[in-house]
Write a structure and sequence with these properties.
The protein is mainly alpha-helical. The chain has helices at 10-23, 36-43, 47-59, 82-91, 96-117, 121-136, 139-156, 160-177, 184-202, 206-228; strands spanning 63-66, 72-75. α7 runs antiparallel to α8 (160-177). The radius of gyration is 19 Å and the shape is elongated.
């Protein structure tokens, strides 16, 4: 189950893989995960990034660190939470993989269109303002501002149909995102990707904008797959 992650989304993909190991019961409750050194080597990430991943899992009550001769990182027995029950209810009505693929197609297409046909000065200002609001948003407000940034890109693509379809699929994605925690490390990474994406659009770099959006969508998908397994 554990394999080297891609450089672009190392934190998110490492979290996805270890979550899958825990959620699938490949290490049972009370069992010990491989050592930090072995996990970092298998995943191809630094020990610093791995510790941030493990801290997220510990904060979610999925693992615990024990010191001493028989210490290590141990998987805790799973317990049901209202969040998990609500997530399962929502999943009954959503094809997650189809939703994530459709979202990626729309987002990548919108980014390429914006960069390819160029933006007016007013449109460029709108995009910069939407980006700035995500940087300034408090944690509780972040997801709304993130959604508005992506909707702005969809609208600036010049296709009302694309905008409408994106709004619909984003609503489904947000229903799922609302059931998983906001992770500061992931948000910081997303912000760097947002900045690079907007710069590519404003520079008229259609290939760069599409590639950055594809990478950004892959990071979100990795987190959702990890928590939804």
């Amino acid at each position: 189950m554990l394999r080297p992650v891609r450089a672009g989304n190392g934190f998110e993909e490492a979290l996805e893989q270890i979550l899958q190991v825990v959620r699938l019961g490949l290490v049972p409750g009370g069992g010990r995960l491989p050592s930090e050194r072995e996990l970092a080597e298998r995943l191809g990430i630094s020990r610093v990034t791995l510790r941030e991943v493990l801290k997220v899992l510990q904060d979610q009550g999925l693992i615990e660190a024990r010191r001493g001769r028989y210490g290590g990182t141990f998987v805790l027995p799973r317990t049901e939470t209202p969040g998990e029950e609500e997530l399962r209810r929502r999943l009954r009505d959503v094809d997650v993989e189809d939703t994530l693929r459709f979202r990626e197609v729309l987002e990548v297409g919108a980014a390429g269109l914006c960069a390819g046909h160029g933006l007016t000065d007013g449109q460029a200002d709108r995009l910069r303002t939407a980006l700035a609001r995500t940087h300034d948003a408090p944690l509780a407000e972040y997801r709304r501002q993130d959604t508005l940034l992506h909707l702005t890109l969809a609208e600036l693509s010049g296709s009302p149909t694309l905008t409408a379809q994106y709004a619909a699929v984003r609503a489904k994605v947000n229903d799922l995102l609302d059931c998983i925690p906001l992770l500061v490390r992931n948000l910081e990474h997303s912000q760097r990707q947002h900045t690079a994406l907007v710069e590519a659009v404003l520079d008229g770099d259609a290939d760069g904008a599409r590639e950055m959006m594809r990478e950004h969508c892959a990071g979100t998908a990795a987190l959702l797959r990890g928590f939804l397994t």
